[in-house]
Each structure stands twice: as structure tokens, then as C-alpha cells.
Amino acid sequence: MAVVNGGALRKMLKQYKYRDLAVRDITNVISQYKDLKPVMDAYGNVYNIPICLWLLDTYPYNPPICFVKPTSTMMIKTGKHIDANGKIYLPYMHEWKPPQSDLYGLIQVMITVFGEEPPVFSRPTTQPPFQALQETGPPNRKHRTPSPPLRY
């Protein structure tokens, strides 16, 4: 394998804020540990998980009702945060306190949680399609009227 020199490292790390310090540190390590080879790669996987957020008429004082909405090629993976209908349960929603709690924070929590425990998986080709929740959304409550859902 080719040895990575300082110029190649600088090019690899061109967007690093403290590139020269990083290059010096990496060069020091690979000079001591010859089997280590620096490689650029993406940190983590990117998942496109379809979700639906229902904002009630009491939003932002109450959290949205959230669902995973699998496509026809996906199945719901139930677990600590997802039930068989795709309803999402997260401590962030249970502990909702406006104005500290908001949609941006909720989505960030979902990204973290679903990155560790993806709520969907690929449907086996022999499995029949999932019966999606009706477009009307979650069960209606007399004192709350959901607004149109936000889909991501």
C-alpha cells in the first residue's frame, strides 16, 4: 500500500477547521503504527425514514403525535420507541416543555434514536404490503383537532 504523505492528508482534510494540527497528529500516529492507514469515509449511515407529525390544535403546548409511515417496500420494526401501528414514543415528547421543546429538537432526537435503532426494515419480497393507517391519521379526540400532517 502507498504511504500517505502530509500533502495527501492536507487534501483529504481540506474542510477541517484545524487541518494542520490534525495532519500533524495523524502523521505522528501513522509513523508509529505502520499498519494504520487513513481513509476518508462518511460517518454513519444515512437512512430515509418516512415519518408523519400531527400537530394538534394545542400545539406548541402539547407535543405532536408522531408516526413512522413505511413505504410499500418497508416493514415497521416494533420496539421501545415504535408500536405495531408505527406510533413513535420518545422521552422528548413525554417531557415536552415549550418553548425549549420544538419540532427541530424532536427531529434531532429522532435522528439519534433511529440511527441507533432503525424503526423500519426492508420488506421480504414474499411479504404482503403493510396496510397503511388511514389518511385521516390518529384516532380523533373530541377536544383536539389535528392540523394537516408534516411529512418528511
TrEMBL record:
<feature type="domain" description="UEV">
    <location>
        <begin position="3"/>
        <end position="124"/>
    </location>
</feature>
<dbReference type="InterPro" id="IPR016135">
    <property type="entry name" value="UBQ-conjugating_enzyme/RWD"/>
</dbReference>
<dbReference type="GO" id="GO:0015031">
    <property type="term" value="P:protein transport"/>
</dbReference>
<dbReference type="Pfam" id="PF05743">
    <property type="entry name" value="UEV"/>
</dbReference>
<dbReference type="GO" id="GO:0008333">
    <property type="term" value="P:endosome to lysosome transport"/>
</dbReference>
<protein>
    <submittedName>
        <fullName>Tumor susceptibility gene 101 protein ESCRT-I complex subunit TSG101</fullName>
    </submittedName>
</protein>
<dbReference type="InterPro" id="IPR052070">
    <property type="entry name" value="ESCRT-I_UEV_domain"/>
</dbReference>
<feature type="region of interest" description="Disordered">
    <location>
        <begin position="123"/>
        <end position="152"/>
    </location>
</feature>
<dbReference type="GO" id="GO:0043130">
    <property type="term" value="F:ubiquitin binding"/>
</dbReference>
<dbReference type="GO" id="GO:0000813">
    <property type="term" value="C:ESCRT I complex"/>
</dbReference>
<dbReference type="InterPro" id="IPR008883">
    <property type="entry name" value="UEV_N"/>
</dbReference>
